[in-house]
Amino acid sequence: MLTLLKIRNLALVDELVWELGPGLVGVTGETGAGKSVIVGALKLVLGERADKSLIRTGEDTCTVEAVFELRDAAEINAVLAEGGLEPCEDGSLIVRRVIGQSANRQFVNDSPVTLNLLKRLGEHLVDLHGPHDHQSLLSTERQLSMLDAYAGCDGILDGYRSTWRAWRDKETELEDLRKAESASTQELDLLRHQVGEIDAAQLKPEEEDEIADRYRRASNSSRLVELSGAASSALGADDDGVLTHLIEVQRLVRDLEKLDPSIRERTQGLETAVMELQELERSLADYSEDLDIDPAEANRLEERVNLFETLKRKYGGDLAAVLTHRDRAAARLDAVENRGERLEQLTAEAAQLREATDKAGLALTAKRKKAAPKLSKEISGQLKDLGFKQSSFEVQVVSNKEPASSGLEGIEFLFGPNPGEPLQPLRQIASSGEISRVMLAVKSALAEQDATPLMVFDEIDANVGGEIARAVGKKMATLGLRHQVVAITHFPQVAALAARHYVVEKEVAGGRTRSRLFPVGGEQRISELVRMLGGGGEQARAMAASLLLDAS
């Protein structure tokens, strides 16, 4: 669940630290008090784009930080791993957004992340619904994913999609070959020449650097012999060589050591220096002798280097690119020369994969058709609890003409709020008030399958009232048994059912307006419910107390 939300300098909020608890959390307050800031902060956590207009006047940055405690971090860790981040080993995830005047930054567990990664994490963390946030429920793709979650189709759907992708890839390959025109004689000749020319060179990518080094030594052999010989002579033991002078130094030091043995600590490196220089002289002499390269070998190396350069100019920047070009040309040549045979082979392979796709799709279809009536019945029951006493709801399964990535069929949520009227697609007939309750009914029916830890309902009860509002509150409270639920509401019937009740209030201090959030209980909570009921005397207070008593 979301255990902590910290907001700093966001709109009217200068600083807010909110420690939430489990179950249904109610948030109330007068219109304009700043309840929308909380929703805005959560949207930032979910990866929504932000701009500097959100920053509180007079400040340079605003910050939102959310701490989630995860019971099962497997899905979150999978997303983190794809982004190259460390997993949540202790089950704690910290998301932080910093909005600045010139740049925005986002962090997960103190590591910088992209906005796209934050969005992907947000899909697993928070399910947010407002008066206009029901488009996902109207999408037939989303409806199908809801049915699959209810039916437990994850494993079988993954298997089907893998088979379907293989079939579609094969069909694409087959279609490309069918559409490909026969190659001209000139193209065939060119392809044969390119493959033959590269094959004749007998290229090995690893030999390019080796040949280049050997050629460089061969082409500069005279100068290398001259330089190494000069260095060896300078070290030599003739009258003016470095070693001659060192040997004299060595004799003098030995005489010193005879007179004062303590000096050995200072001179002990001399013997090593003499030995190393003697070894260097011998090594340079050997190197000079090895440089005696056969002119024929030098010519061969030069020809090899020139061949490399010619091939690279024609086919690529290095030998690996030349060989890649050769493979492409050979594949094209093979496809053209053996087009008929390849067509026959691809046709057979595509037919085999189509058969496997149909088989996997039928297994998926059977599971969906078995679950659809059960889900329809479950949602219908939830709708009756929410005031649709005589409504009808059906999960209709519709076959596709061709297999799709989602299966052999699609689905449509059909809804009939009024008895005697035919059921129509939900996207065509539901009003905003109805769609809010249908969404809540669907969420309630899928409560066990929905793994999202936090659900946020932002005034989805805006177009209902009375007993319906209370039914909505009860449904949210029931969802709170399996999820953490935050309900931002104007209805006392809903707020009274919350396990925890917070009030957002706007105040003016020091000539500045700010929003603050604080918990209410006891008499404070009754006073807030009285305000929500429209004020009044003892009658309103008694009604507020009654709402709380019934909720308890």
TrEMBL record:
The leader peptide range reads none
Boundaries of every RecF/RecN/SMC N-terminal domain copy: 14-506
Query: Per UniProt, which keywords does this protein have?
Result: ATP-binding, Coiled coil, DNA damage, DNA repair, Nucleotide-binding
SUPFAM superfamilies, alphabetized: P-loop containing nucleoside triphosphate hydrolases
Q: Which CDD domains match?
A: ABC_RecN
Q: Which family does it belong to?
A: Belongs to the RecN family.
- Annotated protein name in UniProt: DNA repair protein RecN
Q: Which organism is it from?
A: Luteolibacter arcticus
What gene does this protein come from? recN
